[in-house]
């Protein structure tokens, strides 16, 4: 059978399919490349050539009665060097940077077996499309006229479970951004039903990424979108937890909005149910950073937990830490200033008392001053911890490069600081008559 008849039959099988860009490999025979060029009519063509095949493009063009296009790209490679093949493909991608990679098709038919393996691996790594011409065989030779165009299965469809394992490892070690990227790639490339599962896992990883960055509105919306559809089996077991987390995020968004309104700030801080979602977000974020041995970041988050606990307890006494009205408080507790000075002395601080600024207002209450004031008010939170302990144990945190210092804190310093945070958390939940374990479980991110 002559080539023109082979081409006619091949074009019938290909139909109306066309290619934007085609990458071919030089070889001893030109039929495969000629069939692909004539049938797919690519607008851009690149050749991977060796010194022995450098005339291949001209021979292919002659076979289909074309003039070689001066815009055809030529990259010289050694077929057994997979790294060289990979670099050549990268060069071609760079020159075609205006095209999406999925519009670039790599032909795996020609060349040696080593070359085909290298091309397949490189195309997979670079997210390029692949094609292959399949034929019937007789006596180990292809039968002319039986050629047909095949799209090899994406290796993700076969080996996607390996990528999924890597995504799960990233997810369960709190690298949610990497997990989201891998899961989204899997969802784009594998067939159903795995596609649905990976898309849902990508969405959850995105929600957790947003939550960790305290992009709370976005996290709440992402979780809501995830829960608007039936969860795949891997996540269905966490449905109750995810629903509760979405509700907690929605409440936290409301709290943040209320705190932005001066008239509502004090009442919001007085409400334990309004405070717990933020406290839970900070606390479990700190636990994840601790597990990653990022002690400076964990200490920063723990410190904010201490501050929030103080702000809530002060609010129950009618004090807004940001803009305190201590004159009203001192009228209610006549000897408050005297008691505050006693606490200052016991904590090793210079006596300052509760004195207003020159304009009659009071400065915002710092963390330590907040606990001094709570102790002076005989708040039940201070039954388990003295302000001196808070001052001493938070000193290491203050030396962190993320606070006021110029170094990283050690694990031992961090653990020492955490001791006082844990004591105050236990007392805080005892006062509020809430289950600390249930609260922690709600804000602990699920594993996959």
UniProtKB/TrEMBL annotation:
Gene3D superfamilies: Hypothetical protein VC1899 like domain (Restriction endonuclease-like) (3.40.50.10770). Residues 159-250 form the Csm6 6H domain. Coiled coil: none annotated. This is CRISPR-associated protein. InterPro entries: CRISPR-assoc_prot_Cas02710 (IPR014082), Csm6_6H (IPR054008).
